[in-house]
Specification:
alpha/beta; Rossmann fold; Rna Polymerase Sigma Factor, Chain: A; 4-stranded mixed β-sheet; globular; binds magnesium ion
Amino acid sequence: MDAVQRLTDPSTQPVRVAIAGSTGSIGTQTLDVIRDENERVPGSYVVTGLGIGRSGDAVVEQAAEFGVRLVVVDDAETRRSVAARLPHAVVEADAAALVADADVVVNGVVGFAGLDVTIETLRAGKRLALANKESLIAAGPIVQPLRSVPGAELVPVDSEHCALHQCLRSSMAPDREVARLLLTASGGPFRGRTAAELADVGVDDALAHPTWSMGPKITIDSSTLMNKGLEVIEAHELYGTPYDRIEVVVHPQSIVHSMVEFTDGSTLAQLSMPTMKLPIGYALGYPTRIGTPFGRIDWTTVGSLDFEAPDMATFRCLGLAYAAGRLGGTGPAWLSAANEVAVDHFLAGTLRWNEIADVCVDVMARHDGATPHTVDDVIAADRTARRIASEIMTQR
Ligand code: MG
């Protein structure tokens, strides 16, 4: 039985889900969705594996609650302690181990480190519920061919791309019928501010996202609009739409999660309350919808929905991402790596907010124009861009 039959026939076995990055924001919300769905229809989902970096205490709790038999721990010391506390579980080092017993692998790893899970899941012909946009962005040329492995399926766990996925399902011929993809952006905590006003913002200011509750890396990326820029590249990789036909619209209420305009001028939008549980549940249940509603829109209180153009001059990261996307090859990998290093420094207090874009500009100025052919090429590109970013920051 293939994954789709299993997912569409309620009389069959539970859907087996493995979660890479299980203690992060996406991982814990995936477990929330599974807990709720299993309460509604007992035995709908089983969790076959959990993968973490070093959050040992949290994963021990998760494994106990969901009866998980396989735990993958990246950090060696944490791995030993988890193994001692979970004597009935297999505790491994390699995240690829998560794939074998799963129908769906949720990739909630933060940053470039998520690449392995993306590749191994698609290579095994499984469904990848992808929250780790960096792996698709940095390794697009390597990941794309794996999408045609029989059984392999990529369902995005990103609210905008989930919205696009839902809108695109209305078209019998999206290749011919799509005129524009419109990605909505909340604008982040600094919407409406000038570059001068943003010169001295601190980590806490940037972490105070007005509508979404997410992990620190993506929240900083939202404050610079780098997240939206990376999502433009992600949309291009996922749906094959040329960059000229992907646009960003600022929509502060985060109710419209993205839109597709078709060739006849008709625009479809997906609306829901801002919660990642919806895209997670969509990716777990696709092609059917799960039964648990995660926040219903109250139309008596929702008020007005506003839309405006992004301020590309203040939020330079958005334009940088378009440029890197159009560059292709290892361009997106370089930008994503440079940004990760810069964001780490900002979070550590050693780089100012407006210097995140400066570092990315300087790194991209040294891009070598290469095209990656193997995973090793992508890893090498990532390393090079990180090294250059670190050099640039120590020289500042
Ligand atoms: Mg998003």
